[in-house]
Amino acid sequence: MKAVVDRLRADHILTVDEYQSLLCADQETERYLFQSAREVAKDVFGNRILIRGLLEISNCCRNDCLYCGIRKSNAHLCRYSLTKEEILDCCWRGYQLGFRTFVLQGGEPTDDRDQWVGDVVSALRYDFPGCAITLSLGEKSATTYAYWKQCGANRYLLRHETHNERHYRQLHPQEMSLRHRLQCLRSLKDLGYQTGTGMMVGSPYQTLPELVEDIQYIQHLRPEMIGIGPFIPAHHTPFADWHAGSVELTARLYAIFRLMFPHALIPSTTAMASLSPEGRKIGILAGANVIMPNLSPITVRDVYSLYDRKENTGIEAAEGLPLLERELATIGYEIDYGRGDYGFQCINRDIDK
Asked: 87 with 55: CB under 8 angstroms?
């Protein structure tokens, strides 16, 4: 199995059977996989962990995904939408703390909100000309994506969640379409966005072959960012009683993708920290190189409840940067306050080849 890890590190691709073997490998192989991924990440990024300021701008969503705590049919949730002024205030506070990338995440807005999003992005671009602006607002038309890019957005996160049609249908309402989700990702790439995708690990009914199918899809898409987290159930959803995903399996996927894409930006996600006190560090030691502290107003963090037990204070919060610095130092890492564009530049060169 060490030879398989070495081949992935050298060639950046494996067979279906080899991917499955790595996901099921013994602990000795896991240690070697994590060590190899860590070495590759340090070769590219050194011991620096990039930070992004996360703003959860609204928990209103027009979709009804079966696993999501902010699904539109959840009548138990107190809904909110930040104003443009609140978003700008949060970003100014984040800028003073050192953030140079802002991530605006929210439920998928209705089409009549697209202009408002564009206005917010334009205002951020005017106030923070040197910062990166990332959006994560779901499926939109290519026209809307192009408009938001013209307003000043640089990056877009849209997790595909699953590439398997059968599995997709088990997680989403009938009116949603896997084909449309994948077309949105293609549009984002074609428009020149620095694009991120990814999936939940251990989501309901997920099988190992489906996880490998996700790996192969990401291999084909070649995203600049790869966002993966363990599934965590949410109250008042059809999967409220489903068991959570695995921190360890998620970390193996971090390591696999680091060896596949040495220059990609791979967050150690909040879901990792929500499931385990050591989850964030486990992710970094498996090759992840991004953390996204929460910049949202404290008053709304608890109601942006994609899943239960979500961490949003302490090290997971923007005001907890000193705590984060100390935690990273215990494993030999430090915060990088930059945009991290050097990774994107290398990815683009690789694709051009």
From this structure: yes
Structure-token pair, residue 142:
């290519």
Query: What are 105's strand-pairing partners?
Result: 56, 136
**Distance between CA atoms of residues 266 and 157, nearest Å:** 12
Each residue's pLDDT tens digit, 238-268: 999 999 999 999 999 999 999 999 999 999 9
- Name the residue among 284, 283, 264, 258 with its Cα closest to residue 272: 283
Distance CA 50, CA 72 (A): 33
Instruction: Provide the sign of the torsion angle of the four alpha carbons 39, 41, 46, 50, taken in this order.
Output: negative
Q: What global pTM score does this model have?
A: 0.94
What's the number of CA atoms in the CB half-sphere (13 Å) around residue 16? Answer: 8
Any residues with CB less than 8 A from the CB of 272 and at least 6 apart, and which? 229, 230, 247, 250, 251, 279, 280, 282, 283
Distance of CA 232 to the CA centre of its chain: 15
